[in-house]
Amino acid sequence: MTLFWPDGPGDNLAIRGARVIDPVRGLDGAYDVMIEDGIITALEPAVESARGLVLAPAFVDPHVHLRVPGREDEETIASGTAAAAAGGYCAILAMPNTDPVVDSAAVLGALIELAREEAAIPTGFMATISKGLGGEELTEMVELARLGAAGFTDDGHPVVSAGLMRRALQYSGVTGRMLALHEEEPTLSRDGQMHEGAVSAELGLAGWPSVAESVMIGRDCALAAYEQRSVHIMHVSARESVATVRVAQAAGTAVTAEVSPHHLCLTDDTVRTLDTNRKMNPPLRSEDDRQALLEGLRDGTIACIATDHAPHARHEKETPFEEAPFGVTGLETAFAALYTSLVEPGELELGLVLERMSAGPARIFGLPVPRIEEGERANLVLLDLDATWKVTESGFRSKSANSWLLGQMLRGAIVKTIADGRVVHAA
Amino acid sequence: MTETARLHVAPDHGEPPLLPPRRHLLGISDLDRDGVERLLGTAATIARSLDREVKKLPALRGRLVVNLFYESSTRTLSSFDLAAKRLSADTMALRSSGSSVDKGESLKDTALTLAEYDPDVIVIRHPHIGAPQLVADVTHAHVVNAGDGKHQHPTQALLDLYTMREALGRLEGLHVAIVGDVLHSRVARSLVEALALVGARTTLVGPPTLMPRGIEALGCEVTPEIGAIGAADVVYVLRMQRERMLAGAAYVPSLREYAMEWGVTPARLRPGQIVMHPGPMNRGVEIDPRVADSDVSLITEQVRSGLVVRMAVLYDLLAGGPVDLGPALEVA
Questions:
Q1: With a CB-CB cutoff of 8 Å, which residues 248-307 of chain B face chain A?
Q2: Closest approach of B198 to chain A, Cα-based (Å)
């Protein structure tokens, strides 16, 4: 058991005439879907179809910063999970780089208790690989896993020591939980502010080269192969990284990868605006890198889209670029951003995006795979592909509004989200 | 200078008030070729006024120019200060040390505070890119960038163009070699863009560890061979910015090796070339003292150019049009 939220009864409802797409089952057609006590009880061909409405398995996001404990001014479990519900998610995993960090049973236990009280959707918590994110000693991973840690990560930091990484891999055989890795060779990325390339040369911003990511991915794929264990590479950003993962997978290494909507939609060119909501780690890279990420997503090298939702206080982003923290929010805009930027122009298939936002991440982290099938618990998202809406600072459920999409018009809205049998969002 | 009211930092906070378009000089990209020619022409006219006994012009009487400096500076700050005074403007200088910045005040709040004095121009130097843009976004002043991080230092590039044209009579077709630490140099970035704008050719010379990857996209050539400076009309020497080198970064093995490989010495120059340096110099490192003190060096001329070019920039932002020198002010 790694997902937590308040107990409650399942809902009864019917969704009629939507185009039902379940990429896992290969289902695509107009159906009436009946839900009783939170269970899908009937799936029957529809007589009338509801134009523009798509019913799909709800999304799963394995990479969310809820900022609890420590920065409740930026996000809370209640606000972050409400944002997730509004974004079509039925489950999320929270990152442990909080203050204090989630590296002990005491902190993890308090979070689980809090989620059981205030989470709007089922929520899981990652714990850190190293104590205090210090990169030197392993956390008590077995105890943390027994208590309910969904996996382990030092997100925000790489595991710099190859020796510690190897120990973590060996130990993961006991915990049975995934190691999720932020890949960054710190002597190469140094104080990098953006992708190293023509734009950083022009702006005079310190460059964070792609190779700083790919060399660490290479190292960790080699270690995973040697120890016969699995690793998950978070927020892959560069062509070389996709290539490295692809080669390792072809050689039989159990490595999976995720990519964020902003890396799929934007390039370093947009940093010219000096908008601090274009500052993320890893940084936005070149068009060539973006194309490689799209190829990786299409051919399955990258099995998962994760938002890396990173709320920041407004005053902390309202600074010169170099002083601003890394990260942008994403839970409430992920689907619409991908639909508007990539699906409508024909760069990605709708079914592929739906699969990589739902079954893909669920499988990697051993979470229930949302399926649209009689007898399954309802984990559903109802989408209106014809709806257009404007992203505004006041429109977010999240406590933070550091979105790269502020002011933009998006197509595709979340009409309803059903998580674990309960309606958690209805527009 | 383009008319802008752009919002670059955390845009779209509800509905921002629509400010009237104001002209700024945030970077060379705010100028087109005509704009550069206009400013250099204004500077040349102003230069003639400096030959008079009383050097003050009345053009900006009653205007307020604030110099907001977050980094130490001698020549840029004194140059802007004197430029404003020579145009009869009131001036006020704020430095980060000994001010509320020391107490942790954000740039936005400092700018909002200053804005209450209704300054006509805010000249800002800041260690980070984008700071001038932020000040432009939250105040009604014209903003002049006096150096932001490693990004831009547009008045330096303009004074360098002015100096080159005074010395060589032209800019179009000139070949300029810029030697040294381009990676950490806002002077180099502004100058490369400005030279491209006026049709000059630029070659960057220096150790590969101090060349930003991808800089060629700005329209210049790059080589590690110091011999390449021989082909240039102007050898522009950059300061080895030791204060920007992070501890242990080891961009070059030693200043000694740098001086041996890339120092500009008499032997590496040919007759007819001129040498420039934005200052302050490290004599014996990037430039041989014999070069710095020789007739081919225009380093002191650059300081004089700085004054007239900055007067021209302030004049152009606030008054515009051709300069009427008029009668000199009476000596009080």
A1: 249
A2: 18
Euclidean distance between CA atoms B219 and B197, whole angstroms: 10
Decide: A130 and A154 in contact? Cβ < 8 Å. Answer: yes
If asked whether residues B125 and B163 sit together in one domain, one would say: no
Please check whether residue A415 lies inside any domain of the structure: no
Q: Give me the domain span that covers residue A146.
A: 59-365
Residues of A in contact with B150 (CB under 8 A): 204-205
Residue B8 at interface with chain A, using a CB cutoff of 8 Å: yes
Q: Which of A191, A317, A320 sits opposite B131 (nearest CB)?
A: A320
**Order of all β-strands in the sheet with B234-237:** B221-223, B201-205, B175-179, B234-237, B274-276
B9/A202 CB distance under 8 A: no
Query: Do B18 and B143 fall into the same domain?
Result: yes
Residues written for chain B = 332
Contact B149 A207 (CB under 8 A): no
> Which chain A positions have a beta carbon within 8 Å of B147's beta carbon?
none
**Rounded distance, CA B209 to CA B224, Å?**
10
Interface A-B, measured as beta-carbon pairs within 8 A, has a size of: 103
Residue of B nearest to A270 (CA): B8
Residue of A103, A308, A384, A420 with catalytic role: A308
User: How many domains is chain B partitioned into structurally?
Assistant: 2
Give residue B322's pLDDT: 76
> With bands split at pLDDT 50, 70 and 90, how would you rate the model's confidence at B98?
low
The answer to the question of residue A361 being in a domain is yes
Q: What is the pLDDT of residue B223?
A: 97
CATH number (domain holding residue A256): 3.20.20.140
Could you tell me the CATH number of the domain that includes residue B74? 3.40.50.1370
Supply the DSSP symbol for A237. -
Report DSSP letters for B62-106, one per residue. T-EEEEEESS--SHHHHHHHHHHHHTT-EEEEEESTTSGGGGT--
Q: What is the per-residue pLDDT for B35?
A: 95
- Where chain A has pLDDT below 70, the residues are none
pLDDT digits (tens, 9 = 90+) for B25-37: 999 999 999 999 9
Spatial neighbors of B240 by CB under 8 A, at least 6 apart, are B180, B181, B255, B258, B282, B285, B286
Candidate from B9, B14, B218 with C-beta closest to A275: B9
**Measured between beta carbons, which residues in chain B are less than 8 angstroms from residue A201?**
212-215, 217-218
- pTM recorded for the entire structure: 0.91
Domain-located, residue B120: yes
Which residues make beta-bridge pairs with A125?
Answer: A94, A149
**Does a structural domain hold residue A14?**
no
